[in-house]
Write a structure and sequence with these properties.
By secondary structure, this protein is of the alpha+beta class. It contains 12 helices and 7 strands. It has helices at residues 6-17, 61-74, 82-85, 92-104, 115-128, 139-142, 152-163, 185-188, 224-229, 237-243, 248-257, 261-274; strands at 20-28, 39-47, 173-177, 190-191, 198-199, 209-213, 220-221. The strands form 3 sheets. Strands 3-6-7 form a 3-stranded antiparallel β-sheet, with helices on one face. Strands 1-2 form a two-stranded antiparallel ribbon. It has a two-stranded antiparallel sheet with strand order 4-5. Strand 6 and strand 7 form a beta hairpin. Helix 2 runs antiparallel to helix 12 (261-274). The longest helix has 14 residues, at 61-74. The chain starts with 5 loop residues before the first helix and ends in a 21-residue tail after the last helix.
């Protein structure tokens, strides 16, 4: 996800040695209609030697790459806010997941905030000139049954991040990957220019993502289906029907390992836009002025 990494340059150099003209771009999922923070490198290569070499009759390969960048940039669209695409609290999937967890999960006792969490919070307060107060989850969040499915360390992450929310923050909800270390999650949570757009982190197969709200809704974990939504999976009609074939654990794995669908579509559409097609046998007999019969 970084073109400055040695691995990226190694791959680029290897392709160039094999006769490819190479162009790399960093694509951010948050710029392609999905409210999440995920940066990925895409490499476009054009083979410039050998029998498979393409011919660009009117443009240089640099011009082709420039057209690709232009097309990709033109497809950018700000994502909706996270709360508008997740399920409502009374959605059947959310209720079923909670009921299933209550039946089979052995909830860990709510241990007090650990020394590490308190120490990190105190350091953060000193940096931001905030007054130190005892670190704990908010009263509303503490009433959530979902909190019982987190380990003491994961509850620390929720408490630590809640403590960092600014008083003038206008966002309707906040969410954190509680699987991460508490000193990392503030740096991976993003707000777009619109304060109502919450951009979640990169969701890995084992990620636990916990939501808290500013209204009367209780905090909860994202469901496996919602992880797929954050990859662009349509959770309606056939899209929803297909998920019934998978276990919850498999859905988490699919969401964590897949490419975001909106990014893939944008990259492939941009490739089609910048290519220059040769005339061939498939063009024979095609007349642009020919009449087309109605079906």
């Amino acid at each position: 996800s970084n073109k400055d990494l040695p691995e990226y340059n190694t791959l680029k150099n290897a392709l160039e040695l094999r006769g490819y003209a190479v162009h790399g771009v960093i694509v951010k999922t948050a710029e392609y209609a999905l409210p999440r923070h995920r940066r990925r490198s895409w490499i476009v290569g054009v083979l410039m030697c050998g029998t498979a070499s393409p011919t660009f009759r009117t443009r240089s390969v640099q011009a082709v790459f420039s057209d690709f960048d232009h097309a990709l940039n033109s497809l950018r669209i700000l994502p909706p806010s996270l709360e508008t695409i997740i399920f409502a609290p009374d959605h059947a999937i959310v209720k079923n997941v909670l009921e299933d967890k209550l039946k089979r999960a052995s909830t860990a006792p709510r241990a007090p905030i650990t020394a590490k969490a308190a120490d990190l919070a105190m350091k953060q307060c000193r940096l931001s000139s905030k007054v130190w107060a005892r670190l704990s989850v908010s009263k509303k969040t503490s009433s959530s049954q979902w909190l019982d499915f987190l380990t003491p360390r994961e509850r620390d992450v929720v408490a630590f991040n809640q403590d960092q929310i600014s008083e003038d923050d206008q966002a309707a909800c906040h969410g954190w990957d509680v699987s991460q270390g508490m000193d990392r999650t503030p740096g991976t949570s993003l707000h777009d220019a619109d304060p109502n757009i919450i951009v979640s982190q990169c969701l890995l197969p084992g990620t636990k993502f916990f939501l808290v709200f500013t209204d009367d809704r209780e905090g909860r974990l994202l469901t496996a289906e919602e992880h797929l939504i954050l990859q662009g999976w349509p959770m309606k009609g056939q899209g929803l029907a297909q998920t019934k074939k998978f276990s919850k654990s498999l859905m988490y794995d699919l969401a964590g390992n897949a490419f975001s669908s909106t990014v893939c579509l944008s990259v492939f559409a941009s490739l089609l836009f910048c290519l220059e097609w040769k005339e061939g046998d498939n063009d024979a007999g095609i007349d642009g002025d020919a009449e087309v019969e109605d079906d």
